[in-house]
Amino acid sequence: MASQSKKKQKTTSTPRVVAFSIAELEPDVLLNVFDRVEFHVHSALLKLHSAFFPKFLDSPDKIDNPPSTTGFVYEWITKIDDDGDGWHLISKPDKGSSSDTPDPAYKGDQSHQEKAFENLLSAIYNEPYEIEKVEMFRTMTSLADYCCALRAMSRSLDCVCASGRNRYLYLNIMFGDKFVLEELVKLRHPQLFHDAVIRSLGPWNTPAFLEFKNRALKQQCERLHGQIGVKIAEAQRQILETIDEEEDPAEKLELSKVVQIMASESREGEDGEILLPFYYRKLYSYDNVFEGALTLLMENCLQLCDNSEYEVIQAYNKDYFFCVDIYKEDYPWDTSKKDW
To answer: What is the tens place of the pLDDT at every residue in 202-234?
Structure first.
């Protein structure tokens, strides 16, 4: 489990207790994270939703400890990696077998890691949680990957389809961070992946996908970018035909001037490049003259975005088109697999 942003650590004498509940079933697992938080959870649910816990809770290599005095069948504690950058959970050893060498200091943000782990457990328990920043999403995905609980986290992300606090995650993907596709491929959440791919196709002049390290994902984005290019060419042809077919010379001249003015007003700065998506949106809204030519180019293919949000997203993302679909057979994972 890797560390994130560095931050001065706080210490507390008594760990905070976070107890998850299941009707008529007492917690039998104690997970102590950084000696600051104790998570009281159920082995049955952990084993059901994570391939990590069935393998390690009852591992034959686990130290055979005497019966716990806390009433828990399993007690796990935090072990800091030798370089101090990461951490993981281990079965709590007997006092007599503890190493004399203390763990190194953890270099990351303990509070951030604790919250991410609590969120992951909430996902496993199908309980609500908040993701306000993409960095929390990344850390949760890393923890879910380590704990083999990606499917549980993926299912929990359905909450972004509705309004509410977790909407921050979707809006952050659409308004801010462009490089979460690697995490979304791991999570295999089709709607979030679909919309994040569309966002990565911009800015139109310098699309984000050009920096992707995943070759297959980059090639897929190149194909989608090309599909939008075909729509642009067809729209431009119809715009020229609309002007050319105008019989009134004065009106024809007026339409030509409108196109020039819209292009000038769509530049990024006085001498900057024309922002094509913004330019075509301005033409689309001009007195319905070019509406027919631009209908396909102005299409909203985002799956998790309603009309009111789409207007805001368009206004913020002036150099982005949203008029291309990604189909199930194009997802970079085996959609027939139910466990991963």
So the answer is: 999 899 999 988 898 999 999 999 999 999 999
**β-strand 37-41 against 29-33: which pairing, if any?**
antiparallel
pLDDT at 61 over 80: no
Using H for helix, E for strand and C for coil, what is the string for the chain?
CECCCCCCCCCCCCCEEEECCECCECCCEEEEECCCEEEEECHHHHHHHCCHHHHHHCCCCCCCCCCCCCCCCEEEEEEECCCCCEEEEEECCCHHHCCCCCCCCCCCCHHHHHHHHHHHHHHHCCCCCCCCCHHHHHHHHHHHHHCCCHHHHHHHHHHHHCCCCCHHHHHHHHHCCCCCHHHHHHHCCHHHHHHHHHHHCCCCCCCHHHHCCCHHHHHHHHHHHHHHHHHHHHHHHHHHHHHHCCCCHHHHHHHHHHHHHHHHHCECCCCCCECHHHHHHHHHCCCCCCHHHHCCCCCCCCCCCCHHHHHHHHHHCCCCCCCCCCCHHHCCCCCCCCCC
